[in-house]
Specification:
Largest sheet: 6 strands, parallel
Helix content: 40-55%
Number of helices: 15
Structural class: alpha/beta
Mean pLDDT: 92
Low-confidence stretches: none
Radius of gyration: 22 Å
Strand order of the largest sheet: 3-2-1-4-5-6
Length: 379
């Protein structure tokens, strides 16, 4: 959603609806299905997975419907406990009207909106017609007026705890902070040629995955390519590791640039894998190194050895929930600076350049001291 338009039109509309509507809940029939809303992005989708899974385990009789977007649908559809998906396309304005009409026909009793700043999703929950509408009361975002129950956004705790807090306004559930995304046949088939190529070279070769990009608008969260290249060469010189490079369609040039700096000794998979293939890639990796982006949370969900590089993002709020992870935070005095995910104090890589190569090397060494496979390979 366009943040400017969302604010300009969303805030006054929410205030008008707040004045005209009643917050009194009129629950009719028993709840047999519930609509959850979460449109972006991959990281939040992965964090939401254990929350919805816990809800499903606690209330298997309630069908889970999920309003996703074109951004996260390809990842969300891997979750087997979701009974139905609605897909929101922000570029299709007329389609939004049709989508809301279809949602209203479902006659949901409960809608829970997991977005934290967007007024648009709050309005969708209102126009769904659901008598119980639950969402975040986020300071300064003026979005909670159309909800019947609100959970105040916390900026000092991990985001997953906010998700559990929000859903508990409808039904308290056990906090399970992990959900293992399963490999699919499609993902295995996508990755098979790469794995066969590596095995042909050396069967016992370790696979170290470097994910240098953070998507279209993620430059400020990216460690410079030259630093990744120095790290990659250090890893290859000290081990027999095969370096794998991954990235989405927006990261293709970055992945190609990194491979060039590595003298084309890496296997470059940038832009070549779907989310199914990416899940298989992380599943087969021995170590994942990345900034704060979706693949970081995926590696955490799969409990992989990982080094997570944080600049503007606060690892206490968005860090990996993984006992096998080591976080390296920038020394920038103005970081972390994000609360909602877009309030960067700088848009360049300045904050990430303050992460020192030696600190990342120490993180890798610390992590791998307890991993026999890496010890045997003299890391």
């Amino acid at each position: 959603m366009n943040r400017t338009l969302d604010f300009i039109f969303g805030v006054p509309l929410i205030w008008i609806l707040k004045l005209l509507s009643s917050r009194k809940e009129k629950l009719g029939a028993s709840v047999d299905k519930i609509l959850f809303i979460k449109l972006a992005a991959a990281g939040d989708t992965i964090l939401l997975a254990p929350v919805l899974n816990s809800f499903n385990l606690a209330s298997p009789q309630i069908k889970i419907h999920w309003l996703v977007s074109t951004i996260n649908v390809s990842l969300a559809i891997n979750l087997p406990f979701v009974d139905k998906f609605w897909v929101f396309n922000s570029k299709d304005r007329l389609g939004l009207i049709s989508l809301i009409r279809e949602i209203r026909r479902e006659k949901y009793q409960v809608v829970i909106d997991f977005e934290q700043w967007a007024r648009g999703t709050a309005l969708i929950s209102y126009f769904s017609g659901a008598p119980i509408r639950i969402g975040f009361e986020t300071p300064g975002q003026f979005r909670s007026g159309v909800f019947t129950r609100s959970f105040r956004k916390n900026f000092s705790d991990h985001e997953i705890n906010d998700f559990f807090g929000l859903i508990s306004l409808f039904k308290p559930i056990d906090k399970t902070t992990s959900y293992e995304f399963k490999e699919t046949d499609k993902g295995k088939e996508e990755l098979e040629p790469t794995l066969n190529r590596i095995k042909h070279k050396r069967t016992e070769q370790m696979k170290i995955l470097i994910h240098p990009g953070c998507g279209k608008d993620g430059l400020a969260r990216e460690w410079p390519l030259v630093q990744y290249a120095l790290l990659g060469n250090w890893l290859m010189n000290r081990t027999n590791a095969q370096i794998l490079i991954s990235g989405g369609m927006d990261d293709i040039q970055k992945c190609e640039g990194l491979n060039k700096l590595l003298n084309y000794q890496a296997v470059n998979l940038g832009g070549k894998l779907s989310w199914d293939g990416t899940i298989s890639l992380v599943y087969n990796a021995d170590l994942v190194i990345s900034g704060n982006t979706g693949i970081m949370h995926l590696a955490a969900a799969l409990k992989k050895n990982q080094v997570a590089l944080h600049g503007p993002t606060n690892s206490k709020i968005w860090g990996p929930l993984n006992p096998n992870s080591v976080v390296v935070q920038t020394t920038c005095g103005k970081c972390p600076c994000l609360k909602l995910g877009f309030e960067y104090h700088r848009r360049d890589q300045n904050c990430m350049t303050k992460i020192q190569l030696d600190d990342v090397k120490r993180a890798v060494q610390l992590l791998m001291e307890r991993d026999r496979k890496f010890v045997e390979n003299k890391i």
